[in-house]
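Re: beginner question about structure tokens

> Can someone show what the tokenized structure looks like for a real chain? I only ever see the sequence side.

Sure, here's an example I had lying around. Input first:
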Amino acid sequence: MSQRTRTRSAADRSRKRSTLREIISAGRRKMTPTTIIMLVVSVLFVYNFVIQVVRQTQLEQYRDSLQQNVITLVDQNTTLERTVTYYESRDYAESVAREQLGYARPGDTVMMPTFPDQLSTTAPSVPDKPAAAASSDPNWLRWWNMLRGGQ
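And the corresponding structure tokens:
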């Protein structure tokens, strides 16, 4: 029996080796032109898909930023419309007439502040003679004298 088991195991080994060789040789098939073309086309499809996904993401971000700009502009437009409405109203015209032109309604008490004349009517006196001419001593000597005690 031991020879049979050896024979069987040797036969099993040779079968295993042959199936292993078949598997390895099946993986080493030649690349046909059709296979190469299909591989290149599939790579191009994947590349184009990735590019489209990136573009879509960029366009969505751009759309979101535009929506934010639209919201900001709508707020600014609303504020400007309110401002224009106020400037066209009678209230604004009345406030301008009161503040800038000094108008008042009949029956209003107008209070006008009075300011004392701050301008003097007399001209400042101009001395007839110029100030005493400086001595002919050099500047450094005058400083020395001043710092020493004012001689």
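Each token stands for a local structural state, so reading them left to right follows the chain. Residues 33-87 form the longest helix (55 residues).
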